[in-house]
Amino acid sequence: xxxxxxxxxxxxxxxxxxxxxxxxxxxxxxxxxxxxxxxxxxxxxxxxxxxxxxxxxxxxxxxxxxxxxxxxxxxxxxxxxxxxxxxxxxxxxxxxxxxxxxxxxxxxxxxxxxxxxxxxxxxxxxxxxxxxxxxxxxxxxxxxxxxxxxxxxxxxxxxxxxxxxxxxxxxxxxxxxxxxxxxxxxxxxxxxxxxxxxxxxxxxxxxxxxxxxxxxxxxxxxxxxxxxxxxxxxxxxxxxxxxxxxxxxxxxxxxxxxxxxxxxxxxxxxxxxxxxxxxxxxxxxxxxxxxxxxxxxxxxxxxxxxxxxxxxxxxxxxxxxxxxxxxxxxxxxxxxxxxxxxxxxxxxxxxxxxxxxxxxxxxxxxxxxxxxxxxxxxxxxxxxxxxxxxxxxxxxxxxxxxxxxxxxxxxxxxxxxxxxxxxxxxxxxxxxxxxxxxxxxxxxxxxxxxxxxxxxxxxxxxxxxxxxxxxxxxxxxxxxxxxxxxxxxxxxxxxxxxxxxxxxxxxxxxxxxxxxxxxxxxxxxxxxxxxxxxxxxxxxxxxxxxxxxxxxxxxxxxxxxxxxxxxxxxxxxxxxxxxxxxxxxxxxxxxxxxxxxxxxxxxxxxxxxxxxxxxxxxxxxxxxxxxxxxxxxxxxxxxxxxxxxxxxxxxxxxxxxxxxxxxxxxxxxxxxxxxxxxxxxxxxxxxxxxxxxxxxxxxxxxxxxxxxxxxxxxxxxxxxxxxxxxxxxxxxxxxxxxxxxxxxxxxxxxxxxxxxxxxxxxxxxxxxxxxxxxxxxxxxxxxxxxxxxxxxxxxxxxxxxxxxxxxxxxxxxxxxxxxxxxxxxxxxxxxxxxxxxxxxxxxxxxxxxxxxxxxxxxxxxxxxxxxxxxxxxxxxxxxxxxxxxxxxxxxxxxxxxxxxxxxxxxxxxxxxxxxxxxxxxxxxxxxxxxxxxxxxxxxxxxxxxxxxxxxxxxxxxxxxxxxxxxxxxxxxxxxxxxxxxxxxxxxxxxxxxxxxxxxxxxxxxxxxxxxxxxxxxxxxxxxxxxxxxxxxxxxxxxxxxxxxx
Length: 1045
What we know:
Layout: E1 3-7, E2 13-17, E3 21-27, H1 31-36, E4 62-69, E5 79-80, E6 89-95, E7 98-114, E8 117-129, H2 172-178, E9 183-185, H3 218-229, H4 233-242, E10 248-258, E11 274-282, E12 306-313, E13 319-326, E14 333-335, E15 346-348, H5 352-370, E16 373-377, H6 384-398, H7 401-404, E17 418-422, H8 425-428, H9 442-452, E18 455-462, E19 474-481, E20 486-490, H10 496-516, H11 523-544, H12 552-557, H13 562-581, H14 583-593, E21 604-606, H15 610-619, E22 625-638, H16 651-654, E23 667-673, H17 688-708, E24 714-722, E25 725-732, E26 739-748, E27 759-767, E28 770-778, H18 786-799, E29 813-819, H19 828-836, H20 840-845, H21 848-854, E30 895-900, E31 904-911, E32 922-933, H22 935-953, E33 999-1002, E34 1010-1011, E35 1030-1033, E36 1043-1044
Parallel strand pairs: 4-21, 13-20, 16-17, 16-20, 22-23, 28-29, 33-35
Antiparallel strand pairs: 1-2, 1-5, 2-3, 3-4, 6-7, 7-8, 8-9, 9-10, 10-11, 11-12, 12-13, 13-18, 14-15, 18-19, 22-32, 23-25, 24-25, 26-27, 27-28, 29-30, 31-32, 34-36
Helix pairs in contact: 9-10, 10-11, 15-22
């Protein structure tokens, strides 16, 4: 927990203190503030209660901030400001030129995803003013936690008139919004991202990795994110671990315990319950109330966009996750409020041609984040307004770049990544079956539900042996499957109909997961599942429309009762009133929270010590950095769907007879293609069982070799699979302490982008301070299809993304390995003759991949070692004879390894004589230079710089007592142009030792000389402040009469 402390004299400062660290804020008035208000900080002028912010001409407010160890910080002048500990800060906001610090004053546990991963619901917040004490005793009164419906468009309580200004806090409307029970946070994990996109080794929540699209306090917390970016790594880790900085989502989170008798998952840990969790993340990109936020904006953001994740966890460590999204129809449309349904007219505001670019942005962003998109449109086929929207929706999907290709994303016609299912919910549920008939939608979407798969993680334990034969125990989570696509469901409001259908889709996904394990769920399990989704629907509906969801009684129980119908009628009437009379005020408050009001300016934070230390450390990085060589083995093998090789001797490939220094590489990356037969049934979904069998065979081969030579064994770091393509990375157990941020990602390219017969699997990591990415890919087949292979490369390179939107190219070291399917452009007869005489040079001159790379059409800036082995495809099984079938395919180097990185040198490139497939496996070994940072040296240098800087600036820190007027020159001024130095002041010169202040010592040129005080611009008239650092100014002879001799 965090304490809120305050110091009143000599300068008002607010501190957030934990048991280990303290974060101190102190407002720094500008010269304009002081000249306009000579009695600063207390002018006696109390801000109005309007939620509007400062005018357009307002200057950026500035605050000094300091983060330090609580043991080295003098807090004796501080007193408790809040009666109870708080749960961290949501950030800073400016209202009418006053700066407020927002803290979470009350919270309760809402969900527990897995042990140690809790979600807290925010129940109350407080706003503390940094620059004046006028509001210190206003905001502590308890308030109704759901009162934002009674705030008018100017932020006043309706029905109470205008109160005296002193009686209402400027942030009252914000407090009511944030205390409404719709905001959530977690100190244990990144709540803005689905489980599939989180790293296993996250021990704290790093603010710079959060998804800004779901981070509702992003505007308020951004100044602190910027401040954090300037800290050293150890200070960043300490700040993250302190829990002082809090990230909030809006939406819903809840967990139900599933007792063993009701749990469908068999567990070896009897008596322990499983958990089912539902988390909904409402986007803040186009946030607003029902009639104020409809359709889409020009950046492709849609209203009421929600990502909902169903999570099921068992005590054995099995974790299932499934994500789907909802959102307003992505066209430009509006709807006017009205007391009668007929008055709520829908109008489409842009032509199809003007809409398509923004529509494409929206769908491309979805595909980039989730993979192929299956749209489920529930709008009516009878209501004219909904028919008009559906017609336009259908038009834009038909003309989408995801379906028709574009030069921009390099996809070809036929690479369809967008499907549409139209299901008139009202018409389908009008019969005697009622809402139960909605489940019939499963017939239309089942193929996608099975093809998209789901995320599946498991806890594994490995016991690698040391060279001395001792067991080492490693327990960790590993990814078995990844979700490969998403359903995007909508109705008009994306509330009632949408929530019911999403419940059905969630159930379908859970059933697919359970059927794969040979398990079935009980009625009690599905009742709990339905209750979670009904609660979710109510929560999202209250946020967007002001009332709970309609049809929720059916979602809970599977039946619609008379009481439920009456409740729906009451909710409809309440919605009409709220949407017509209260939504404008709620919208203004939301816009203020998100920093969208005219004239709103974010707070600028500066730290005169750490900002300087960070700059100096970057300049002197070589003093604490060094390079360490490691070896990497990377290999690729197209298995042609064969399984007999699992029990074969894989050592000629995995442990080849290379130089002894490379026989035990630190990292082994193994890529397989066609790990299963690519039949029509197989290519739609991923079965991890075959990959796990091959991983076991690879690890057995590596560790048998290590044991024979007295070397340490390997552990599996991570694996990933896209139907037939898989990638597995193994590392020596001793280097695990250097490896962090291990992530995996997939990208489909085959069969219109919906199936996984072609595509890529990637795994990235950071080894010490060097980022490494491995990619295995299976590109389009066919002799003449090199253009399509080039497009496949561009699709993968552009579309495959890791966390923080990292691409493949955002790494120091990149290694591609796989069946790229490029062929040799010569006749079959000539190729075979050249192979017989060993003329690989001529073959390589006609190799499609070589020619396309030279032309810059694929794999730009990548390199390949010289090929000294015969083509790897296509052989008759079990022989060294190239294809003798009727097709008589031309031999080719389909299987390749490419590299990129200044720190990477390839040593070997060869093939291995394994004959159970029609391909030959290929391997490459590399020497990779890893950047290592000596954290002790860096910390020592950092401390020296810190103490030097602190001694230099004295008390001009957030906890110091220097006069405000001395602090302006410590702010890091930005240059007006990138090539120019920062601006100087009367005490700060950029040309003197990194802009530090200077003391000038003026000496006369001769003993007989004296200063000429009569000269207007002579040295006698110079007024240089006396500050500690000395500099001598030399003078040359001049005709000016500045010196009298």
